[in-house]
């Protein structure tokens, strides 16, 4: 599938995937610039509010969301947008979507508040319940990770590198959450000959596996669909796999009636 098509102003438009990736990278970078304007504020406590579930919401989330929605709505190919900031949309409204954008304007809000730089802008394209393209932008370091059927890549300081998973058979490295941990995670990692681990926030855990810095990432606790879509696209494009639950059976999928994810397992090896 080298082309994607959509409808804008009742006309059908076609676009090459590589061109669409480049357009989405621009949108993600613009969203990152909006985030960084707020990130440099000396007192982030003044820009933090809390959602109904007590997770933090910053002005940066909202600013980035506006930039991304505007950018996606101006693209030649048009698809519905499901964003974290619009998560109250009912299943009835989206159940018949075959292709749509899945957006987390600021993934790793807790990392943003801690000012450790480990937060990202996530934009994924979902088709028939599976992710087919993903862009992750790291505003604090001006770094891109992106993936599609054309491969997975990292761009940093003007240098573009193709990403491939390690496919290690032993002495594996796990990437673990900087903010979440569970006994179930320890138990599962023991089965995969994990000898060491690194810690990362946000969707950067997927990126660590995609570029071979880690071999396995297991998340037992809940996440939302927009937390995982872009990362899954990049990891799979790099040769990795993402499964539902803690076994290597069902590929992780999207646009469920409940947007809350269960546990998932990411592997950088067969």
UniProtKB/TrEMBL annotation:
Binding site for substrate: 84, 106-109, 227
Residues where Mg(2+) 2 binds: 104, 107, 227
Record key words, sorted: Cell inner membrane, Cell membrane, Hydrolase, Magnesium, Membrane, Metal-binding
GO CC annotations, alphabetized: plasma membrane
Reactions catalysed according to its record: adenosine 3',5'-bisphosphate + H2O = AMP + phosphate
Enzyme Commission number(s) of this protein: 3.1.3.7
Source organism, top-level taxon: Bacteria
Residues that bind Mg(2+) 1: 84, 104, 106-107, 227
Compartments, as annotated in UniProt: Cell inner membrane
GO molecular function: 3'(2'),5'-bisphosphate nucleotidase activity; magnesium ion binding
One GO-annotated biological process of the protein: sulfate assimilation
Cofactor annotation: Mg(2+)
Presence of the UniProt keyword Lipoprotein in the record: no
Membrane topology: Peripheral membrane protein
Job of this protein: Converts adenosine-3',5'-bisphosphate (PAP) to AMP.
UniProt similarity note: Belongs to the inositol monophosphatase superfamily. CysQ family.
Protein known as: 3'(2'),5'-bisphosphate nucleotidase CysQ
């Amino acid at each position: 599938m080298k082309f994607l098509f959509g409808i804008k102003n009742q006309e059908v438009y076609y676009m090459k995937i590589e061109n669409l990736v480049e357009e989405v990278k621009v949108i993600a970078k613009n969203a990152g610039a909006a985030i960084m304007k707020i990130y440099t504020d000396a007192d982030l406590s003044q820009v933090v509010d809390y959602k109904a579930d007590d997770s933090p919401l910053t002005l940066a989330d909202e600013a980035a969301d506006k930039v991304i929605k505007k950018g996606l709505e101006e693209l030649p190919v048009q698809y519905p947008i499901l964003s974290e900031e619009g998560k109250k949309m009912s299943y009835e409204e989206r159940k018949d979507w075959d292709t749509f954008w899945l957006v987390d304007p600021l993934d790793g809000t807790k990392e943003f508040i801690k000012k450790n730089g480990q937060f990202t802008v996530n934009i994924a394209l979902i088709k028939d319940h599976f992710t087919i393209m993903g862009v992750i932008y790291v505003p604090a370091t001006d770094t891109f990770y992106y993936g599609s059927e054309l491969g997975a890549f990292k761009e940093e300081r003007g240098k573009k590198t193709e990403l491939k998973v390690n496919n290690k058979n032993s002495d594996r490295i796990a990437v673990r959450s900087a903010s979440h941990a569970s006994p179930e995670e320890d138990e599962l990692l023991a089965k995969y000959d994990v000898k060491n681990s690194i810690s990362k926030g946000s969707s950067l855990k997927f990126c660590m596996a995609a570029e071979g810095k880690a071999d396995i990432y297991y998340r037992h606790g809940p996440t939302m669909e927009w937390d995982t879509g872009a990362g899954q696209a990049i990891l799979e494009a790099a040769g990795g796999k993402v499964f539902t639950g803690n076994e290597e059976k069902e590929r992780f999928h999207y646009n469920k009636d409940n947007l809350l994810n269960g546990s998932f397992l990411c592997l950088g090896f067969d």
